[in-house]
Amino acid sequence: MKANEVPQDKSSLDSINQKELCYATDESGNYITTKSSGWTPKTIALNNAIEDIKERAEEAKQRVLNNETSPIEYYMELNRMDVTILAGYVGIWPFRVKRHFNPKRFKKLSDKLLQKYADAFNISLKQLKQGDLNED
After folding, report:
1. Dist CA 80 CA 92 (whole Å)
2. N or C, which end of the chain is more exposed by having fewer CB within 10 Å?
3. Which residues contact 20 (CB under 8 A, 6 or more apart)?
4. What is the arithmetic mean of pLDDT over 2-27?
5. Contact 32, 23 (CB under 8 A)
6. Which sequence spans correspond to the domains of the chain?
7. What's the predicted TM-score (pTM) here?
8. Can you say how many angstroms the Cα of residue 58 is from the centroid of all Cα atoms in its chain?
9. pLDDT (tens digit per residue) in 101-125
10. Which helix (H) or strand (E) holds 14?
11. Handedness of CA 8, 50, 75, 73 (dihedral sign)
12. pLDDT of residue 134
């Protein structure tokens, strides 16, 4: 894409008066960096992805409230993680993270392991153990 063709569509960056750095070609065909205020297709895709994440977190929250899963799954979704990423933060195998979604197993976890989860989610141990599902 040429530098003068970089999209300048309205996006969420406008509200914070920011620009996105993009690569384009100049008149000589050399790559240069240029700024873009946004691109409508990208904005739509990002908004759809964010809505999907919110829906998954809300579904996980309902499963926690129905005692079908542990708060670990909810906070994982809320923090835009998957099982593999969370396992990396906590330092355990992914299959163990999945096992900890079971409410009965969750209640038997040690404070040491729960603290690792709480640290990964940037919440307190008390908040994780009590299942305080506030999104703050």
Report:
1. 18
2. C
3. 13, 35, 36, 37, 38
4. 84
5. yes
6. 54-129
7. 0.77
8. 13
9. 999 999 999 999 999 999 999 999 9
10. none
11. negative
12. 66
